[in-house]
Amino acid sequence: MTNVRTVELPEVTLAYRESGRIGGPPLVLLHALGERATDWDVVLPDLAPGHHVYALDLRGHGDSGRTAAYSLEAMREDVLAFLDALGLVRVDLVGHSMGGAVAYLLAQAAPERVDRLVLEEIPALHPRPSSVPPEGADEPAHFDWAMVRAVKAQLDDPDPAWREGLTRITARTLAVAGGPASPVPQERIAELVRLVPDCGLVTIEAGHLVHSARPAEFVAAVAPFLER
User: Fold this and answer.
1) How many domains does the chain have?
2) What pLDDT score was predicted for residue 1?
């Protein structure tokens, strides 16, 4: 059974979907840019049947609040505030694409809060040609275009400290790559694997949307990693 809830945080109201085994080790799922918590439904409950799972709508997405300012750092702070609000001292954390960037920024800033970390299709970030949408783009119902512009600008011109901080991650980590069909440079994912001290790599030939395109293979790779 999945329960849809909200929590009031200092800067924003976050919506989340709660499922899994009550009392099990907590698992937090962070979606990609422009997605929402329901994006994970295709791999639940098989992903972590023994866990108590929290799938978040990050700020500016889904049913979570829209704010005056957006950044990956603000999303990281939202997730930390979420953990504090729910009394989650230490969690397993899975992030896809943008959600993976938020996850590894959290694991850098608060390594004591993360036990196991899964990073799906997120590389060590380097500057890249700008791909920010035009200011005139209309807002769909499920995300804020102002958030997309702000986050894409950061992903296009990332803080070098984010890449350097990968060496401070203490969580046992698994990187999931989508192979040559992905627009993400696979050599940058390999670089992330080298920089994170305890990081394995699995490649699933699915392109960027690994868990939605190849859910069974994603679960087969990630579920054993998360098992207690």
Assistant:
1) 1
2) 85
